């Protein structure tokens, strides 16, 4: 028989209310052994809250609580389930949980409630992962993307590919079982069309991997440039408060400063760096070396230059080496723009800005959004932004499909084509979850928080 599990589902610490979950076949019996009220948990209708007390073996009251019963399969886990709302003190919450364990429950492992929801068909694997994305969301866009994925948007796209694969595999295996039936030319063309169509769908999903990483972890954004171009001023302006020291003395910023902001729903991990120049100061040179490492690791580079003076050597060199991650920003436009910058403007997209006068911030926000997520990105696109695990599965599926298409074009035996299609089907199935993937499931759900 499946064990009955229990855990505290609200964050650790003091609060007005804490929530304890119990799930499994004996959940109402276990709760009933610890709960005293006019009506026992087994007598309560679904989703009806009953006031009562949690008592110990001697009948002493541990806490006044509200108890709610959820009958299977209409619960989060799909099992018989009880939720107990008690006072939110650390000690009282722990005592209530310990009492439930004394009555027969087992402490749940991290993510075990959601894992049971998946195993009982309440969620597919993409939706289960979206639960954790929802909890960890750091921005409005990440929150909306996780909510839509929880509704099954990504799962729908993947299942459509899976259904098309099953249809194609059934056709190929029918040809193997009935070799006397020749494949008509129009059918051959249809099979090629199906294979290329699935490859195209997989490619579209793979393109969302970068967006998914940015939404989940933030875009590492490095502010760089020569000394005294306004890097620290830009950091302070984006943060909305003075975080970095601003000075006209070159070399003031010697170490990197990191902060996180939310810009139009995108989490940006801002890194203000030391100005890049030739220096005889050993400490400053260490800061410059660190700046170069940050630039190499960045998702986005905000390259600042002083618009009021002639183009500096650093900017000239950067313009000669195009980098899709780099966004040029001409600061200090309130002082006028040197004619030397006009030769770079037509072919080098840049944003004109005045940190002092706070001019150009909307244009900068637009440029950052487009550069990080891609021009024309919509919330619907973000709803299917895949993670690293999805990316790996889709890449494997795409490779198997390409091998199947190549074999088909070279008229290789249908048995080989069927083998490649089965492998592609397994890879796609791993995205939404399939039987026999216990190691995969354990790895995914172990990252969840306790009580979820």
CATH architecture of the largest domain: 3-Layer(aba) Sandwich
Structurally, the number of domains stands at 3
N- to C-terminal distance: 22 Å
Task: Please report which band the strand proportion falls in: under 5%, 5-15%, 15-25%, 25-35%, 35-45% or over 45%.
Answer: 15-25%
Taking pLDDT < 50 over at least 5 consecutive residues as the criterion, the unreliable ranges are: 244-255
Instruction: State Rg.
Output: 29 Å
What's the β-strand tally? 13
Succession of helices and strands = EEHEEEEHEHHHHHHEHEEHEHEEHHHHH
Query: At the first level of CATH, what is the class of the largest domain?
Result: Alpha Beta
Sheet with the most strands: spatial strand order: 3-4-5-6-2-1-7
The fold-level CATH name of the largest domain is Rossmann fold
Shape: flat
Mean pLDDT across residues? 81
Number of helices: 16
Biggest β-sheet strands, sense, barrel: 7 strands, mixed
- CATH homologous superfamily annotation of the largest domain: P-loop containing nucleotide triphosphate hydrolases
Please identify the structural class as seen in this structure.
alpha/beta
- Name the helicity range: 40-55%
């Amino acid at each position: 028989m499946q064990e009955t599990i229990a855990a505290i589902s609200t964050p650790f610490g003091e609060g007005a209310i804490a929530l304890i979950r119990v799930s499994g076949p004996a959940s109402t019996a276990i709760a009933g052994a610890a709960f005293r009220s006019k009506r026992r948990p087994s007598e309560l209708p679904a989703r009806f809250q009953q006031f009562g007390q949690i008592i110990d073996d001697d009948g002493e009251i541990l806490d006044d609580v509200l108890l709610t019963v959820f009958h299977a399969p209409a619960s989060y886990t799909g099992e018989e389930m009880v939720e107990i709302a008690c006072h939110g003190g650390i000690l009282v919450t722990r005592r209530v949980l310990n009492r439930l364990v004394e009555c027969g429950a087992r402490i749940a492992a991290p993510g075990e409630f959601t894992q049971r929801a998946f195993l009982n068909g309440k969620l597919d694997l993409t939706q289960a992962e979206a639960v954790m994305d929802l909890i960890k969301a750091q921005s409005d866009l990440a929150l909306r993307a996780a909510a839509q994925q929880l509704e099954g948007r990504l799962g729908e796209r993947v299942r459509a590919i899976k259904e098309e694969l099953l249809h194609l595999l059934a056709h190929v295996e029918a040809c193997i079982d009935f070799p006397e039936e020749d494949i008509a030319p129009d059918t051959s063309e249809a099979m090629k069309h199906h294979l290329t169509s699935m490859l195209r769908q997989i490619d579209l999903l793979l393109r969302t991997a970068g967006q998914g990483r940015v939404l989940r972890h933030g875009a590492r954004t490095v502010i760089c440039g020569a000394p005294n171009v306004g890097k620290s001023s830009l950091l302070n302006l984006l943060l909305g408060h003075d975080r970095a020291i601003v000075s006209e003395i070159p070399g003031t910023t010697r170490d990197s400063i990191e902060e996180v902001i939310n810009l139009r729903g995108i989490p940006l991990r801002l890194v203000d760096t030391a100005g890049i120049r030739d220096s005889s100061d050993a400490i400053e040179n260490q800061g410059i070396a660190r700046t170069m490492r940050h630039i190499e690791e960045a998702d986005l580079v905000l390259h600042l230059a002083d618009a009021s003076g002639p183009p500096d050597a650093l900017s000239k060199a950067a313009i000669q080496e195009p980098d899709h991650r780099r966004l040029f920003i001409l600061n200090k436009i309130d002082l006028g723009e040197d004619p030397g910058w006009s030769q770079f403007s037509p072919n080098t997209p840049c944003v004109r800005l005045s940190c002092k006068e706070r001019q150009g911030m909307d244009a900068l926000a637009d440029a950052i959004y487009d550069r990080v997520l891609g021009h024309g990105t919509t919330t619907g696109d973000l709803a299917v932004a895949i993670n690293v695990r999805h990316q790996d599965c889709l890449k494997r599926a795409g490779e198997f499909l390409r091998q199947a298409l190549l074999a088909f074009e070279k008229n290789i035996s249908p048995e080989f084509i069927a083998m490649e299609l089965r492998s592609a089907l397994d890879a796609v199935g791993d995205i939404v979850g399939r039987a026999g993937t216990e190691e995969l499931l354990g790895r995914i759900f172990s990252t969840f928080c306790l009580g979820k």
